[in-house]
């Protein structure tokens, strides 16, 4: 009877551990998919800004932007799946560890030992390794308040002022320095957009197009995203890629129907005789 009881508990523990192993393999597979998607997103971003054969920009910009959104959505889904599997494995490990602890307690009790010396069971395999927490997304209004420094704001304002005074070449240099000094800062996207504007003012359309594309891809949901796409469409038209320009302007209407620049987009499409 005693052996049968112990055998059933051990069997339950083995089954639980086996389940954890299978789920661990599932997590590994999912993490592999996440890594693959990350590589695809980075590759797609690179393709968007690489020099093409004719004008230095991809001929299917609108399709590429849609594909980028799809990849990012799939990446978010897989990240959520990893979190769920991690929690499931945690429960399995804890349940199996508790069963082992119960076995130790009962064996000590059956052997006439002092059960008060039986401590909390250690987690099987040392437990699970917790993933590093991902950065918490904050809204556009609160992020600058948390991260913006006085020096950063002053450098940004100086570069903007140079552009407003017509010193566009100097403004581009100042924004380049700003982006190198404060990478990923709260004003980085705005700096990239203002840099694009100065390049457009100098009619450097190829570099302006790349810069507008970087401004858009850096924050597709930000307040400057519609104007960045509008600037990209204008730059493509100036480079002679009218079809791609029309596709990009269509994206502005599809993605941001209430952007406040609908009239500008319509006017630009009309001037290009877009379908």
Description:
- By secondary structure, the chain is mainly alpha-helical.
- The protein folds into 2 domains: 2-126, Orthogonal Bundle (Helix Hairpins), CATH 1.10.287; 142-271, Serine Threonine Protein Phosphatase 5, Tetratricopeptide repeat (Alpha Horseshoe), CATH 1.25.40.10.
- The chain is 72% helix and 0% strand.
- It has helices at residues 2-49, 61-110, 142-147, 150-164, 168-181, 188-201, 205-218, 225-238, 242-255, 262-271.
- The longest helix is centred in the first third of the chain and has 50 residues, at 61-110.
- The model is unreliable at 1-24, 51-61 and 136-146 (pLDDT under 50).
Strand content is under 5%
Tell me the major beta sheet: none
CATH class of the largest domain: Mainly Alpha
CATH topology of the largest domain: Serine Threonine Protein Phosphatase 5, Tetratricopeptide repeat
> SSE order in H/E notation?
HHHHHHHHHH
Number of alpha- plus pi-helical segments: 10
SS-based structural class? mainly alpha
The rounded distance between the terminal residues' Cα atoms is 83 Å
Q: Averaged pLDDT, please?
A: 74
Assign a percent range to the helix content.
over 70%
The fourth-level CATH homologous superfamily of the largest domain is Tetratricopeptide repeat domain
Number of domains: 2
According to DSSP, the number of beta strands is 0
Q: Can you name the CATH architecture of the largest domain?
A: Alpha Horseshoe
Radius of gyration, CA atoms, in whole angstroms = 28 Å
What is the 3D form? elongated
Poorly predicted runs are 1-24, 51-61, 136-146
């Amino acid at each position: 009877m005693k052996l049968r009881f112990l055998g059933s508990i051990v069997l339950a523990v083995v089954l639980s551990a086996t389940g954890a192993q299978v789920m661990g393999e599932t997590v590994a597979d999912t993490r592999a998919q996440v890594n693959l998607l990350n590589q695809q997103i980075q590759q797609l971003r690179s393709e968007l800004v690489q020099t093409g054969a004719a004008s230095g920009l991809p001929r299917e910009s609108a399709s590429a932007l849609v594909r980028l959104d799809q990849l990012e959505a799939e990446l978010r889904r897989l990240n959520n799946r990893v979190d769920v599997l991690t929690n499931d494995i945690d429960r399995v490990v804890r349940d199996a560890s508790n069963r082992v602890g119960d076995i130790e307690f009962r064996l000590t009790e059956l052997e006439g030992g002092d059960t008060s010396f039986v401590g909390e069971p250690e987690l099987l395999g040392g437990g699970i390794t917790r993933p590093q927490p991902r950065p918490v997304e904050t809204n556009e209004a609160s992020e600058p308040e948390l991260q913006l420094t006085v020096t950063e704001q002053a450098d940004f304002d100086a570069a903007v002022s140079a552009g407003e005074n017509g010193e566009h070449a100097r403004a581009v240099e100042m924004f380049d320095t700003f982006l190198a000094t404060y990478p990923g800062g709260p004003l980085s996207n705005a700096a990239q957009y203002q840099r694009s504007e100065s390049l457009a003012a100098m009619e450097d359309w190829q570099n302006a197009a790349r810069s507008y594309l970087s401004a858009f891809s850096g924050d597709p949901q930000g307040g400057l995203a519609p104007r960045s796409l509008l600037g990209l469409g204008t730059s493509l038209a100036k480079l002679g890629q009218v079809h791609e320009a029309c596709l990009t302007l269509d994206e502005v209407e599809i993605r941001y129907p209430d952007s406040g620049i609908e009239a500008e987009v319509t006017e630009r499409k009309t001037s290009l005789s877009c379908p």
